[in-house]
Amino acid sequence: MSPDRVGGATELDPDERVGLRFKHVTTRAQLDHLEQANIQAALQWLARLKIDDILTEQFIRELHRKLLGQVWGWAGAFRQSEKNIGVDPLQIPVQLRLLLDDVRYWVDHATYCPLECAVRFHHRLVFIHLFANGNGRHARIMADQLLSRVFAEPPIDWAGGADLQAMGARRSSYLEALRRADRGDYQPLLNFVARRGNGLPARE
Ligand SMILES: Nc1ncnc2c1ncn2[C@@H]1O[C@H](COP(=O)(O)OP(=O)(O)O)[C@@H](O)[C@H]1O
Ligand SMILES: [Mg+2]
């Protein structure tokens, strides 16, 4: 995410505009607005969707395409270039397959409680970083889909009353918790999701 995100009026760089379906968009604030509208429409689609199995590459890509496909031409397509977060782009399909196999195993063997399963799934998705953008938002929705459709549990209160996309204390602690999870320590991320209305007592 650009450090200018908070500014909103920041002009987009030419390389940030690749695949943008709205040629009149010039600022980050306009882009945020369009993405948010697309995501709202996709969430309505998702709420009505009947689907047996969400743990497939096909659904994961379809969800991303629905979330951002009105704004970005590359929505739903795996990332082709290196980023400072994420695996080598050539590794994305195989890393996703391994992750989906792991999650299926965790579910079948009750390896973790539903919330920990969702948190680990979320972190591994953002760690792979499947797409050029929108990974955080997509992977938070995927974790919630796992909770609701596989475990019949309520979704995570990610934002906890704040706007998680905007910079703020809650986003900072979310990102710090992900960095700890990168090093194998999931406790901060578990504390983060447990804080409000997520069914577990917070361990501060
Ligand atoms: N160190 C990290 N390890 C794993 N995931 C991270 C790390 N830092 C950031 N992320 C994830 O990447 C997301 C940002 O990627 P991006 O594709 O821009 O998603 P979005 O556009 O939805 O914010 C963050 O929301 C977070 O979920
Ligand atoms: Mg982003």
Structure explained in plain terms:
This protein is 51% helix and 0% strand. The chain is mainly α and 204 residues long. It has a single domain, classed as Orthogonal Bundle (Fic-like fold). The radius of gyration is 17 Å and the shape is globular. Mean pLDDT is 91; it is low at 1-7. It binds adenosine-5'-diphosphate (ADP) and magnesium ion (MG). Adenosine-5'-diphosphate is lined by residues 1, 85, 126-127, 133-137, 175, 178-179, 182.
Quick structural overview:
The chain has 204 residues and is mainly alpha-helical. Helix content is 51%, strand content 0%.
Helix content: 40-55%
What is the architecture at the second tier of CATH? Orthogonal Bundle
Radius of gyration: 17 Å
Q: How is the CATH topology named?
A: Fic-like fold
Write the layout of secondary structure elements.
Layout: H1 28-48, H2 57-68, H3 92-109, H4 114-128, H5 135-151, H6 169-182, H7 187-194
Helix pairs in contact: 1-2, 3-4, 4-5, 6-7
Bound molecules: adenosine-5'-diphosphate and magnesium ion.
The site of adenosine-5'-diphosphate has 13 residues, from helix 4, helix 5 and helix 6.
